[in-house]
Amino acid sequence: MTGGDPFVRNDLFQLIEYPPEGSRASIRDALQRLVFSVDSETSETFIKKFEHGGGVVEELIEAAEVRSPSVQLRINPRREVIGASTHEQILGGPANQVYLGCLFPANDAYRQTIQELGKRIRRVLADTGIIGRLSVDFLASRNGAADEWSIAAIEINLRAGGTTHSMLALRFLTGGILDATSGTLPGADGWAKFYRASDNVQSPAYYGLVPEDLIEILTMHRLGFNHQTSTGVLFHMFGAVSQFGNSASSPSAMTGTRRTGFF
Question: Which of 4, 159, 199, 205 could cross-link 248 (Cys pair, CB 3.0–4.6 Å)?
Fold first, then answer.
């Protein structure tokens, strides 16, 4: 269930226990024991926003294995649709609904499936006059390693998202062009590129660091992006490090496997 102002944020929550008898009193009691993804949210403030702005009740898809891939698209003023990329979203928080980062590209097992679904969605949006960047979030679920993945589209975001900056950075750093068929991005050197990116690289140890300190640490440990090997880390949002202990990074690798060693 989501509620509040849709142009500000969605407050996602789950019921601790669904009341089996389903009476008004039991449901009212359950609503006081909600688990929120935002620490500052409470049952009282959420219900007030829900009464004011309305909301949507959605079915929670549960399975032994659940992932959250996404497709990024762009529609130009001529209504031409351009496929941009696919990602695996890394989620966390109490209800596993807080965006922490992403992996590029999406899993091989369903990447082309969500690409095709994205094409169908973007054709409809282009016909309605939508222009600009957008993304479609999916849920991929299965109960066993031998089972087929079940794919469900859950949300369309008509804006640049958390995966936009990292993908553009990878293209500019490596000279790569997205292969619309495979969904991979070969660089100018011919090697396929992979990365893990996050806008939530945070630690109390980072408090007090200034951007110059961060650059010096990257240089000393040779973590910065290397144009000869097409590997390394690109940091942005430096200004948040000193006050909030927070930064963002977009590491990329040229090898045939996803590399997270830089993290």
Answer: 199
Cis peptide before 105 (omega within 30 of 0): yes
Q: What is the Cα 205 distance to its own chain's centre?
A: 25
Q: Which residues pair with 186 in a beta bridge?
A: 192
pTM of the model: 0.80
Which pair of structure tokens corresponds to residue 224? 């910065």
- Report long-range pairs for 234-243 (Cβ below 8 Å, ≥24 apart): 234/169, 234/173, 236/165, 236/169, 237/199, 238/211, 238/214, 239/211, 241/206, 241/209, 241/210, 241/211, 241/214, 242/207, 242/208, 242/209, 242/210, 243/207
What totals of helices (H) and strands (E) does the chain contain, helices first? 6, 14
Q: Which residue, chain included where needed, has tokens 């090697």?
A: 191
122 compared with 70, residue with greater pLDDT:
70
Helix (H, G, I), strand (E, B) or coil at 61: coil
pLDDT digits (tens, 9 = 90+) for 30-49: 778 777 877 788 888 888 88
Q: Which of the 8 DSSP states describes residue 29?
A: H
